[in-house]
Every structure is written in structure tokens, then in C-alpha cells.
TrEMBL record:
<keyword id="KW-0474">Menaquinone biosynthesis</keyword>
<dbReference type="InterPro" id="IPR004033">
    <property type="entry name" value="UbiE/COQ5_MeTrFase"/>
</dbReference>
<dbReference type="GO" id="GO:0043770">
    <property type="term" value="F:demethylmenaquinone methyltransferase activity"/>
</dbReference>
<dbReference type="InterPro" id="IPR029063">
    <property type="entry name" value="SAM-dependent_MTases_sf"/>
</dbReference>
<dbReference type="GO" id="GO:0009060">
    <property type="term" value="P:aerobic respiration"/>
</dbReference>
<keyword id="KW-0489">Methyltransferase</keyword>
<dbReference type="GO" id="GO:0032259">
    <property type="term" value="P:methylation"/>
</dbReference>
<feature type="binding site">
    <location>
        <position position="68"/>
    </location>
    <ligand>
        <name>S-adenosyl-L-methionine</name>
    </ligand>
</feature>
<feature type="binding site">
    <location>
        <begin position="117"/>
        <end position="118"/>
    </location>
    <ligand>
        <name>S-adenosyl-L-methionine</name>
    </ligand>
</feature>
<keyword id="KW-0831">Ubiquinone biosynthesis</keyword>
<keyword id="KW-0808">Transferase</keyword>
<protein>
    <recommendedName>
        <fullName>Ubiquinone/menaquinone biosynthesis C-methyltransferase UbiE</fullName>
        <ecNumber>2.1.1.163</ecNumber>
        <ecNumber>2.1.1.201</ecNumber>
    </recommendedName>
</protein>
<dbReference type="Pfam" id="PF01209">
    <property type="entry name" value="Ubie_methyltran"/>
</dbReference>
<comment type="function">
    <text>Methyltransferase required for the conversion of demethylmenaquinol (DMKH2) to menaquinol (MKH2) and the conversion of 2-polyprenyl-6-methoxy-1,4-benzoquinol (DDMQH2) to 2-polyprenyl-3-methyl-6-methoxy-1,4-benzoquinol (DMQH2).</text>
</comment>
<feature type="binding site">
    <location>
        <position position="89"/>
    </location>
    <ligand>
        <name>S-adenosyl-L-methionine</name>
    </ligand>
</feature>
<dbReference type="GO" id="GO:0009234">
    <property type="term" value="P:menaquinone biosynthetic process"/>
</dbReference>
<comment type="similarity">
    <text>Belongs to the class I-like SAM-binding methyltransferase superfamily. MenG/UbiE family.</text>
</comment>
Amino acid sequence: RTTHFGYQDVPVEEKAARVADVFHSVASRYDLMNDLMSFGVHRLWKRITLERAGVRPGHKVLDIAGGTGDLALKFSRLVGPEGKVVLADINASMLGVGRDKLIDHGVGGNVEFVQANAECLPFPDNTFDCITIAFGLRNVTDKDKALASMARILKPGGRLLVLEFSKPSNPMLTKAYDEYSFRLLPKMGELVAGDSESYRYLAESIRMHPDQETLKGMMESAGLERVEYTNLTGGIVALHRGIKL
Ligand code: SAM
């Protein structure tokens, strides 16, 4: 069986190892590159995600593929001392950078760090009030399995938010964006992180990711209800939200 690694077909077992290499390689410069590559707009996309998450004091929240912890940091303030946030990621390097950043920000005892694969999350059924996955799903080999795993561990009434690159609604925007991501992005990766290959993978993985309607259908198949999405920045990114009833 093969799957996609960017535009390449690779054996299923190989994709996870290649994705791991990419994130080990970019971890220490990930935050800087994120700001440069998105001109800082990823902060706005994440702020909108936080607003739609509806997280309140006392809630239990999982940020899977949480990487360097931008969302987890904000959630830890929202849930307060009675709540709990789990920052989970498959990659030890990304998780390490995230943990250091949260400690630097004085985050206390309400955040737990867990190395886990989104496809088989090591938590009991009905655990979380909210789960987020931001710019993570496209890196997962079996996305349907991951969505089902997230649905299983949501509490009834809990919500899943998926923030991910998607399909721009305007062809002119698609053209400009292709130019940017296939030419400029690997160059920036080379200059700033000394690693054009990883950034080429990131650009290609964005193109291979399911579009808005396809992802909506996948979330419904995983058992989520009232699934809806909002296009951000002309559909370059979409925020999907579904509820477990
Ligand atoms: N959520 C963070 C953000 O928005 O800044 C990090 C996003 S980063 C582009 C993607 C993250 O997904 C990486 O930290 C990577 O290690 C993680 N990842 C990739 N495959 C995964 C999997 N199967 N399970 C959990 N995390 C995964």
C-alpha cells in the first residue's frame, strides 16, 4: 500500500518516518518560520480557532499535533486551575520546543505533555470537552482513523476543531499562492532554516490535503455532527468544527 508524501507516492509505513524527519529538522526554527511564511497571519487563524472553541474554566482540552504549543498556551489560561490541557504530538523535538516555551511563559500545573499518534490516541472514551488539531491533519497518514480516534475521546457535546490549509475559492488567488508556496517558500526555508526540502514537502502536502467539502464529509463519517466550516484568508485556510452528540 502506498500513500502521499507531498506529491510522492511512498509506502504507508514510510510516510510517518519521513514526516518525523521533517519536524525533527524544523523544530528549533518552527515558530520563526511560521511567522515569516504566513506574514504573522497564523496568529489570527489561531485566534479565530480559540474563539470558536468555546472553552471555559474547568474544561478538559486536547491539542493534538500541538507542536510548539501556541494553542495549548492560550487554552491553559482559559481552563484555569480547575481545568486541564493536554499538548500532544507524535514528534519529541516539536514537543520539547513546546514544553520549553510553555514553561518560559510560566504555565503551571494544568498542562500535560504527551507523545502520541493522532491515529490511536491513548485516552479513554468521552474524556475531552474540546479537541483541536491545527495544521496537523495533513501530516497524518490515515486521516479517517485519526478523526475517528478524536471523536471517540470527545465527551458527548464536545467539539472538534480542525484548522488546516484548504482550497482557495478564487483562481487568481490560487495562482499567486502556488507561486508563493512552490518558489518562495522553499527558498525561505533554505535561507532561514538551511532546509529547502522540508519546506518543499510542506508546500506539496498542502496541495494534497482534502478540500473543504471533502474534509466536512470525512468528519461526518467519523461520527461528528453539525459539521460546518469557515474559510479564512480566501480559503487558503479553513476552520472546520463538528460536535459529538
Ligand atoms: N499545531 C501546531 C501549530 O499550529 O503551530 C504545529 C503544527 S505543525 C505544522 C504539524 C505537527 O503535526 C508537527 O508538530 C508534527 O510532529 C505533528 N504530527 C505529524 N503527524 C502526527 C501524528 N500522526 N500524530 C500527532 N502529531 C503529528
